[in-house]
Amino acid sequence: MPKKTLKNFLISFAVVVVAGVGCGFLEHLAGSSEAPLYLIPMALGFSVFSLLQLRSGTGKEVRVDDATRQAALNAVAPAGQALLYLYREGFVGKAVGWDVTLDFANLAQLRSPRFTQTTVPAGSHTLRVSVSGVANANNKPGETTFEAQSGEVIVFALKSKAGALGVTLSFVREQDAGAARQKFSKMGMASPHHQQANSQ
């Protein structure tokens, strides 16, 4: 059994034990009860385990400080490069991190609502998004290619669409990059992986 799955099981088991003791105490105070109180701790334990498993591929979030975030919001593309922003918003599955790669190298893991920013050289690039862990079974990875022009600001929204065979992840390019960037003033910023590596 994977270490993370074992940890999730033990946490869920602890929830079942605590809830079971609580329900037993309530049943004792009320005398005999026709209600199947033993189902409550079992349901709680199953729910906790399921939620923890869905988040099993989500790593510890690394957010940037306010100064770095503000610099990213006001950034200007260096000569020969373009600015690339990716963001995710929405309530469904917000705590599950989506793994984003740029040209097949890890870029960031985004929860919701979060954004990240990096620079890319002019030319063709490939973005890919997927979900790790147990949640990967119901999520189909998404991929897109794009051309970056020198000095350009490029913004992609990460989207999900439910279908008969699960959830499909995708990228939607924003036509008005300036308006899209204004949304980020109310979002937290996830640190790009290359920035994390440089800070270590």
Structure description:
This protein has 200 residues and is of the alpha/beta class. It has 2 domains: 3-54; 66-199, Immunoglobulin-like (Sandwich), CATH 2.60.40. Helices cover 33% and strands 32% of the residues. It has helices at residues 3-30, 39-54, 66-73, 177-183, 193-199, and strands at residues 81-88, 98-102, 105-110, 114-121, 123-130, 139-140, 142-148, 153-163, 166-173, 188-189. The strands form 2 sheets. The chain has a 6-stranded mixed beta sheet, with helices on one face. It starts with a helix and ends with a helix.
Question: Layout of SSEs?
Answer:
Layout: H1 3-30, H2 39-54, H3 66-73, E1 81-88, E2 98-102, E3 105-110, E4 114-121, E5 123-130, E6 139-140, E7 142-148, E8 153-163, E9 166-173, H4 177-183, E10 188-189, H5 193-199
Parallel strand pairs: 1-8, 4-10, 6-9
Antiparallel strand pairs: 1-4, 2-3, 2-5, 5-7, 8-9
Helix pairs in contact: 1-2
Q: In a nutshell, what does this entry contain?
A:
This protein has 200 residues and is an alpha/beta fold.
Give the % helix: 25-40%
Strand content range: 25-35%
Kindly provide the name of the CATH class of the largest domain: Mainly Beta
Count the helices. How many? Answer: 5
- Give the H and E element order: HHHEEEEEEEEEHEH
Q: Report the count of strand segments.
A: 10
The largest sheet has its strands arranged as: 6-9-8-1-4-10
